[in-house]
Structure formats: C-alpha cells, structure tokens
Amino acid sequence: MNTWRCIVHGPADAPANMAIDESLLVSGTPTLRLYTWHPSALSIGYFQGIREEVNLDACERHHVDVVRRISGGGAVYHDRAGEITYSLVLPEQELPRDVQQSCERICTALASGLQQLGVDARFSPLNDVVVNGQKISGSAQTRRRGHVLQHGTVLLDVDVALMFSLLRVSTTKIADKAITEASARVTSLRHLTGEIDRDNVITALQQGFADVFDVTLQEGGLTDDERERLPELREKYASQEWTFQR
Known about the structure:
Elements: E1 2-8, H1 14-27, E2 31-35, E3 41-44, H2 50-53, H3 56-61, E4 65-68, E5 76-78, E6 83-91, H4 99-115, E7 121-124, E8 128-131, E9 134-144, E10 147-155, H5 160-166, H6 176-185, H7 189-193, H8 198-213, E11 215-219, H9 224-238, H10 240-243
Parallel strand pairs: 1-2, 1-11, 3-4
Antiparallel strand pairs: 2-6, 3-5, 6-10, 7-8, 8-9, 9-10
C-alpha cells in the first residue's frame, strides 16, 4: 500500500493558499492538503477575465480577497467559516490520462468521505459532487511538469445571496427568484446534517481518499524546498499583474 503525505493546517489568506498549492504541484509528491481561508476570498479560473466575472467593489465592501488560480474553471467564493478546501497533488501516472476520468476518481473519493457523514454524495460530471442533485463540491484541475493538481471546495455552509453579490452578474440574475433557484441547486453539510464538526469532516474526507485510492495517509508538512518557493509564489498571487492579466 502506497503512502501519501497529508497536510492539514489552519486558515491562510488567498495568495498564501494558492502559493502552497503551486509549490506542492512543482514537487509532485503525492499529497492531500485540507485547508481554509482567512479572510474569505473569491478565486477565479486562470482563463477568466476578472472585470467580467467579479464585482470588485462588492468584494472590497465585504473584505473578500480576490485571487487568480493556476487552474481553470469558474469563479468560486471561499467563505472563511463555510467551507473546507482540498487540494490533491499526484504524478500523472497515478491517475487516468483522461482528465474527465481523473476528475471522476478524485471526486469519488470526496463523495466517499461525505458518505461517512451520512449524506448520499455522488460524483456528477464534469467535476462536481452532488447530494440529491444539489451541488456540495466543485473542483478544478491543472497539469504541469508531469504532475496533477486538483483542488476544490466542500461546502459546510453557503450564503448564496452574498455569493451573487460578489460576482459580476446582471440585475436580472440577482433577483430574489434567481437567488432562490440557485439556492435550490446548491447544498451544504449544515443544511443536510445540522450542526457540523469541522474536525469530523476532515477525518471523513481523509478516510474517503484512503479508501478509494487504497493508500495510507501520513501527517506531514512542507519540505524545505517547498517552503523556500513560497515567498516568490505568494508575491505572484498577490500581485496586480497576475490577478488582472485578463
């Protein structure tokens, strides 16, 4: 049975979180990382235009960081108290070559973990986990230098009205009816199970990955090389040049 490193730590700001993920991707050491955000943040996909996707004034009013990810996909709101974020780094040969199949395997591990909390979680293409048809997790993936990084959310709680206010959407889309309809498509562990224990969720997610990938998770931290890369990477993710490149 193979052994993966597992890194679980307290909250970090958006540039630091994205810097850690990229440093892990450069290393390529099999690693599951579980983390949170402080302050809350909105991350956008690498290929997105920030001014077209993000209400920057609203983000400033609500003290929400904005960061561009290295991965693709759409804009995601990361509530500091409302989610656990995961990232998984593996050598490409440890996952299916087909991106869709690799997303399915990783999301199946997430679903397996959530099932241990008593919810009927299932993978839903392209890269979501749903419970009774409602989204509880979304993910994005990138591949560099023979390594894969997939990261995404697990919703502990969700404020759809706040999320809509941070995104650059038309007034029609943020009408009460639209928010109600969006709320019907998204769910959270708090909605499904009531009060939640963050440590129990982390333990369940760890077990889901261990079971699906048939690995042992060993608690660890960043290597010296990974830490040495962080200042430069964090500076990149905090820079206007990176964030506003599109």
